[in-house]
Amino acid sequence: xxxxxxxxxxxxxxxxxxxxxxxxxxxxxxxxxxxxxxxxxxxxxxxxxxxxxxxxxxxxxxxxxxxxxxxxxxxxxxxxxxxxxxxxxxxxxxxxxxxxxxxxxxxxxxxxxxxxxxxxxxxxxxxxxxxxxxxxxxxxxxxxxxxxxxxxxxxxxxxxxxxxxxxxxxxxxxxxxxxxxxxxxxxxxxxxxxxxxxxxxxxxxxxxxxxxxxxxxxxxxxxxxxxxxxxxxxxxxxxxxxxxxxxxxxxxxx
Length: 254
Description:
Layout: H1 7-24, H2 33-60, H3 69-81, H4 87-99, H5 110-113, H6 141-148, H7 150-164, H8 166-193, H9 212-215, H10 221-226, H11 242-250
Helix pairs in contact: 1-8, 2-3, 2-4, 2-8, 7-8
């Protein structure tokens, strides 16, 4: 059994999480205010800090560096727990997206794949003729280890959470990761299909205000495509980017 970060494994993990969330929702007594608050906090932590800060702005675009190395690995752990694959695998797909945005080579262009609510089969295989040059900087022993054993690492943490308490597992991980998957699919779709544009980029990227409550500054996707190396997505005054404010606190001074 392979436990790596493959497209097949990520899709299978997504389906299992979806099934577990639906089954767990039958027990409505679990949905207390405290548990719902835990789920909301976990969702924003995994999605904003794990995926968008670490996998997107840090690993994919190298838009900033951390003041301290331990911070990098702390937030990398959060990124791994987000359930969307290893940093190496995620970065590879995202750099393909920027290199071939909204063309036939784009791994998740909504123009070609349409709308996918849960993301099942939404990504083209990242294992087929992998272009190593796109992730040469990610080929470290640490990242290769995470990539090779990704599913095993996630399952080990899930077991530990389940030993604490099922409600902790459900509201701190299962439900938030389920919501992260939905938000990522909507981000991939609406970020290129709905909204306005500040820049005439070569792709169809757009700024989507309807995504802001769920993605914060990542909603200004056209701004990002116009200047991917910038750790902030703000261009106009009303385009708030709380994640950029946080990055400014923890990044190394330049």
